[in-house]
Amino acid sequence: MWTIDKVRDLIQQESHEDYEERYANVDELYSRVAELLNLIQEENWSLTPKFRQSYCCFYFRGRRVFAVTLFSLPTFGIWITENEAEQWESHCKPQRYDHSYACAVYPRDATVDELLPIFEFAYRKHRGN
Question: What domains appear along the chain, each with residue ranges and CATH number?
Answer without folding.
Answer: 4-127 (3.90.1150.200)
